[in-house]
Design goal:
By secondary structure, the protein is an alpha/beta fold. It folds into two domains: about 1-185, no CATH class; about 195-285, Diaminopimelate Epimerase, Chain A, domain 1, CATH 3.10.310. The chain is globular, with a radius of gyration of 18 Å. The strands form two sheets. Strands 6-7-8-9-11-10 form a six-stranded mixed β-sheet, sandwiched between helices. It has helices at about 10-25, 60-70, 100-110, 115-125, 135-145, 160-170, 170-175, 180-195, 210-225, 250-255, 275-285, and strands spanning about 1-5, 30, 50-55, 75-80, 90-95, 200, 205, 230-235, 240-245, 260, 265-275. The chain has eleven helices and eleven strands. α1 (about 10-25) packs parallel to α3 (about 100-110) and α1 packs antiparallel against α4 (about 115-125). The structure holds manganese (II) ion. Manganese (II) ion binds near residues 11, 55, 80, 101 and 102.
Amino acid sequence: MRWFAYNGDADGICSMVQWGLVHGIDGNTVTGVKRDIELLKKINPENGDEIIVMDISLARNHSKASELIQSDIKMTWFDHHLAGEPIVGLEAHIDTSSDVCTARIVESYLGVKSDWAQVALHGDGLSEHSSKPEFKELGELLNYNGYGADLEDLHFHPDELMRICLESQTPASFLQTPTFEALRNGFNTDMENVDSVVEIDGVYMLPNEAWARRVVGVMAHRINSTGPGPHVIAIDKGDVLQISLRGRNGIGEICAMFGGGGRETAGGIDALPKDEITALMNEVNSRRSV
Ligand SMILES: [Mn+2]
């Protein structure tokens, strides 16, 4: 039995679609909202099973991955987030360069050029590295769909969305589906709310409502394109803040200092106690470009 564990965002979905177009996706698929990255915990492989992981940080799944490798499960890992220590026996295709996403890594592994990799670049906020600006909206919308506190917040279950993309075969034909139309309408409605959000003391503060939980990622990418940052977007969850951080470099490291994680240019902290926001902002401000 083959298992796929993939992030429920644009990059995870586009990685899976590329794999599916070449090899099919027979087996079990495990995914979730974008924030749900401890997906290995949802896999219970038997002897002889194989696991393919896409767009999930190895660092955040390190002990479970080591455990699986030690019990002789074959595992192949495609990702661009911080990886932590290498695991002997794990087939890792991990590149943390700031101009690649997982779908680009999968594209070169498969050796088949794909517009889905271009969609994923847009989804991950890496539009400047894409040669296909016509897929920017699609990338943003697939990415947007993955954001939410839980699956209830989302317009489509990421696995359902992935299968519709796979059925469409190309991004160009997915653009003609009612699914795309529904994503676009949902997004536009949510974005109307964003216009009322202002930056206060260096932080864009959002209320803890479904629309905000859905748009936070796209909003972060858009703010990030306005300047070098780092940019801080927070959802106010009462005692804690859910932080999204974007910038040019060192972002994953800053988040890791506060119990979060990420990659060079994008990261997050799930639950930052409010009394730690000053310490976080000190870190952020010390790295702001003048
Ligand atoms: Mn990614």
